[in-house]
Specification:
It is a single chain. The chain is 45% helix and 23% strand. A 5-stranded parallel β-sheet has the order 2-1-3-4-5, with helices on both faces. Helix 2 packs parallel to helix 3. The protein is globular. The two termini are 14 Å apart.
Length: 119
């Protein structure tokens, strides 16, 4: 079972994503960070297989955290989460920085699991 770290400042979004991920039986949620800085600390202690990271968070945002995480581990698997529908400069920047894919809100279970399986 692959270990997943969820990073989102919204508790309701994180719970929704955790339900999808856990009920699949393929993934285990090992932690929940509320911002980019927490995600870096939790990555170093939990060593998840995949990080699902919101792009927009207070404090350190997802793009900044992605840049830092990629510097720590070039093989890290990060999937960004956005409510922007996957369009715009931030989407392109995330992919260029090394994000594996982008999941759009609202979540579609089949799409989320497909992206995580491919990560």
């Amino acid at each position: 079972m692959k270990k997943v770290l969820l990073v989102d400042d919204s508790i309701s979004v994180a719970r929704q994503l955790e339900k999808i991920v856990t009920e699949s039986g393929e993934f285990q949620v090992v932690g929940h960070a509320k911002n980019g800085l927490e995600s870096i600390k939790m990555y170093q202690s939990l060593h998840p297989d995949i990080i699902c990271m919101d792009m927009n968070m207070p404090g350190m945002d997802g793009i900044t955290a992605l840049r830092t995480l990629m510097a720590l581990d070039r093989n890290i698997k990060v999937v960004m989460i956005t409510s922007l529908g996957g369009v715009g400069d931030k989407f392109n920047e995330a992919i260029k920085l090394g994000a594996r894919n982008v999941i759009s809100k609202p979540f579609e279970t089949d799409n989320v699991l497909k992206i995580l399986r491919e990560a």
